[in-house]
């Protein structure tokens, strides 16, 4: 039997898969390295970063008040954890760029032209949600909490409990601000129409308040501070969906008119 030098069919079938897996590993490694580099650069400022995150509460406490650490390792672990989260937060554009570079070769030109603006918008909206939580929600929420307690109770918040609380709100508002993107994609892909989504407004309002109740502390103020922006962002998604559908309808009618 002569050796023709041809590659076996099974090897030909596995080669593209192996190449994709190698590229995926490379992209993941780059993302992890980027997070580690940013973390190492920020670690020297970990206490300052924690102080910045704690300022909305500390500014409302009586002069001389301070946070406490109820666990031995909390003074180290809380700033460490926050710095790691901030590193991931800062590196999101690069991580998403790596994901985009991995999937982009398999997309059509029309899909690429649409996906890139949506990707950039989703990152921007996530950052806006976190900024809204810090600059708008935190001052209102902490003012409510610190002023409604009994006069003889001194607020001394544990640093680890506070960190868990604010991180939960950061991510809740960051994800909530993605609603316009989700609504827009539902309309664009034809999974739902503008008319059907508009008709579901009462259920959307109820769902926003249910989500606000589940993702925020058990009080009406924080629930409303999340639910109301979520509904307004839903309307923004409907608005952009109408504009895109109207534009695509005009483009389809233009050749007929010509």
TrEMBL record:
Keywords: Cell membrane, Membrane, Protein transport, Translocation, Transmembrane, Transmembrane helix, Transport
One Pfam family it belongs to: TatC
Subcellular location as annotated: Cell membrane; Membrane
Cross-referenced PROSITE patterns: TATC
Biological process, per Gene Ontology: intracellular protein transmembrane transport; protein transport by the Tat complex
Domain of life of the source: Bacteria
InterPro entries on file: Sec-indep_translocase_CS (IPR019820), TatC (IPR002033)
GO molecular function terms attached to this record: proton motive force dependent protein transmembrane transporter activity
Cellular component aspect of the GO annotation: TAT protein transport complex
Coiled coil spans: none
Membrane topology annotation: Multi-pass membrane protein
Predominant place of localization: membrane
Subunit structure, as described in the record: The Tat system comprises two distinct complexes: a TatABC complex, containing multiple copies of TatA, TatB and TatC subunits, and a separate TatA complex, containing only TatA subunits. Substrates initially bind to the TatABC complex, which probably triggers association of the separate TatA complex to form the active translocon.
UniProt family annotation: Belongs to the TatC family.
Protein's UniProt name: Sec-independent protein translocase protein TatC
